[in-house]
Design a protein that fits this description.
mainly beta; seven-stranded mixed beta sheet; 11 strands; 50% strand
């Protein structure tokens, strides 16, 4: 399985970005997908997850109401729409997958990692 995350960049506080995670090498619909992030000097943390059907989603409290995760199984892609970005959202964002109906909320539960995409929010 290969995961490719992209869409990061530099944005001002209050702005928006949409991250994408493309999966190849396996049947995309067999995988639940999560987004994690890691800020400098901090542990990697769960941001959002979506079941393989797309029927259930979850968010960290810090991003609820601002971020939206979705998936398009026809395009083998998961999206993370990030609105009202804050400087504390600055981090490298990683997509992660596992061959399960349920998404990972812990790094130890992840089967496959993408390479990460940097999001920088300026104040």
């Amino acid at each position: 399985v290969q995961l490719q995350a992209y869409g990061g960049g530099l944005v001002q506080a209050g702005g928006s970005l949409r991250l994408s995670c493309a999966l190849s090498g396996r049947t995309f619909s067999h995988y639940a997908v999560s987004w994690f992030r890691q800020a400098p000097g901090k542990e990697r943390e769960f941001v959002s997850g979506i079941t393989r059907s797309g029927g259930l989603t979850d968010y960290a409290d810090s991003v609820k109401g601002r971020f939206t995760i979705s998936r398009d199984n026809a395009k083998n892609t998961v999206y993370l729409q990030m609105n009202t970005l804050r400087p504390e959202d600055t981090a490298v964002y990683y997509c992660a997958a596992r061959p399960s109906s349920g998404y990972s909320t812990k790094t130890s539960d992840v089967s496959f990692w993408g390479q990460g995409t940097l999001v920088t929010v300026s104040s």
